[in-house]
Amino acid sequence: MKTLTTNRAFWLLLLISALTILPFLGLTDYHTKGEPRESIVSYSMLETHNWILPRNNGGEMAYKPPFFHWSVAVVGLLNGGHITEGTSRLPSAIALIAMTAFGFLFFARRKEMGIALLAAFITLTNFELHRAGANCRVDMVLTALIVSALYCLYRWYERGLKGIPWVAILLMSCATLTKGPVGSLLPCLVMGVFLLLRGVRFFKAFFLMIAWMLLSLILPACWYVAAYQAGGKEFLDLMLEENVGRMTRTMSYDAVVNPWYYNFITVFAGFVPWTLLAVLSLFGLTYRKFAIRPAAWWKRFTAWIKEMEPVDLFAFTAIVVSFVFYTIPESKRSVYLMPIYPFIAYFLAKYLFYLVRRGSKAIKVYGSVLAVISLLLIACFVAVKCGLVPDSIFHGRHAAENVSFLQAIRGINGIGSFVLIAIPPLLGIYWWVFQRRQALSSRYLTALVVLTMGIYLALDGAYQPPILNAKSVKSVATEIEQIAPQSEGTLYEFIESSVYSKGDPLHYFELNFYMGNRIDNFYHKHPQKGFLVIGKSEAERWIPKFEQEGYHFQCIYQSTRRVYHQIAEVYRFELSH
Predict the structure, then answer these.
(1) Full-model pTM
(2) Does the pLDDT value for residue 2 go beyond 60?
(3) Model confidence at 1: pLDDT above 70
(4) Full strand arrangement of the beta sheet holding 491-494
(5) What is the mean pLDDT of the chain?
(6) Segments making up each domain of the chain, as ranges
(7) Looking at residue 152, what is its pLDDT?
(8) What percent of the chain has pLDDT over 90?
(9) Which residues on neighbouring strands pair with residue 492, listed in sequence order?
(10) How many whole angstroms separate alpha carbon 73 and alpha carbon 67?
(11) What is the spatial distance between Cα 58 and Cα 14, in angstroms, rounded to a whole number?
(12) What is the DSSP letter of 309?
């Protein structure tokens, strides 16, 4: 790390980030409801040329503003007008890479280059950001925009609060167009608190932040007005529910409600595998005895804040304010806290260099753990591939699904996959034979990064795609398309929970994407004839009720795998007059 210049390190980081993320984006089919739910909005934009408020999934409007969907649609246009799994994930991947690179430049120009580079690689390889960077979801793009806006606001602070931070304002505008006003509110709140801690007068800090937030809301306001003209009260109610109701705990439906301590758990889990190193290091630290004196603690804490370097205080403020901010709503998800991850990575990088200077054994122990994991990965793969793990070991409710995962691993073939699979054990062997015998230095931190990225390469490029594809219902969509083609009638869906849902109804998102957004809503449309896709258990309860209304049904298909926890059935139906 020390031999690199900042420019060379930046381009090396950019190259490594691209090579370890971009090639694998399209290997995995959609296997959850979240990704196709977002991509189908972009699909509708291209299909209907409605870029303001497109309808999808049988007439539903999107629950989020459109910047992310615009990004996916633009990538689709560059791909000949086609949206695929890979193209839909590209905006998230670019957001992660850009945030990592900009974060490196931000810290490298203000602190040691080695710390900045290590922080960048920790950002790139913690579980939560790595996963989000390979998903078609709004969260990674929102995170990159918020974090980048914070970097720009700090540069504005360094210039003595002079001028207008136009780049930060534009980034906050895009963040607001990605997931609502939080994209402007959170960066301004963080920067406002930071300014107060740096001695800026309250009213000056308050009015400056209010001014920048209002400027950042001008572009989003244009879309909100246009969307209101298109969607009316339905759109207004939805936006108030998603933004105001979520923060004031007045939503009409539960949206991933979790207790207050959930945020602590999710940060700890989200920073895997680096949290393991942090925990191991605690056993090697020396601790002083201290008395329980709250007043003394507060005095030492305030003194520590005053003595903190501006960059450190800025990063610390971003972590604390964002964390506290997201404890307010009842709705708590792990991805909400992603804006604090690059700043935690910075402090963790500083801590790891501190451990090296102290000669902490935790570094070597953690490296050995990664090396063992690398060797265990290929050992398990060889055992499964050779048939040493029989299907009969699985029992119970999820036995069939687990067997399909096992068969997917057995089916891994190809030179590319085998090369990726070989990378972690080779790195693990190198660690055991050479690296661990060397004197502890910053080279060990480089080795830890390489070991971690080697494991990710094998997981992302070889192990994960076939396993997750075994969960996908893409093959079910193909079978339904053959048995119920669009030329013979419209395909409708019925999901019982959606009928009674107060908000955020469930749809057959995966099926709808893979079938070209052709699924309509049976319950609301009351069609005369067509095809109906419905879960088997729900069909047993609801088909007799529909028949009492004059419908006649003929079952023409039953899926061999579950679709949202049920076997899917397709009926041809007609309403008698």
Answers:
(1) 0.94
(2) no
(3) no
(4) 519-521, 491-494, 529-535, 566-575, 551-563
(5) 91
(6) 6-275+289-358, 362-471, 475-575
(7) 98
(8) 75
(9) 520, 532
(10) 10
(11) 41
(12) -
